[in-house]
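Propose amino acids for all 110 sites.
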């Protein structure tokens, strides 16, 4: 499949502090995208997602990997997920699956 890493989700107790940290560390720019703050360089995007009440400090909503691939590859992706027995769902045009440890993997389509 022709895919590449689109972004990584980082769960933060303090979104503003995390945005400042990563912008300074990576010499990056901050922007709002899909309701989240994104820290972006030319090659990397971090979606900074607020930790929700009750989330574990080590595993929280928003912690995920996101890959981008051509829409024509979606049937192949769905077949591979089915063969793996991996649960998945479509949300706002994106496909979300869970890895064996329950981490979300997002697939965005061009």
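Proposal:
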């Amino acid at each position: 499949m022709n895919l590449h890493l689109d972004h990584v989700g980082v769960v933060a107790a303090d979104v503003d502090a995390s945005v400042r940290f990563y912008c300074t560390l990576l010499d990056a720019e901050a922007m709002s995208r899909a309701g989240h703050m994104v820290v972006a360089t030319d090659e990397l995007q971090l979606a900074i997602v607020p930790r929700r009440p009750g989330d574990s400090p080590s595993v929280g909503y928003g912690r995920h990997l996101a890959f981008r691939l051509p829409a024509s590859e979606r049937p192949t992706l769905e077949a591979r997920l089915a063969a793996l027995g991996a649960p998945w769902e479509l949300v706002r045009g994106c496909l979300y699956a869970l890895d064996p440890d329950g981490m979300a993997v997002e697939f965005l389509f061009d």
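The helical segments are 15-26, 74-84. The chain has two helices and eight strands.
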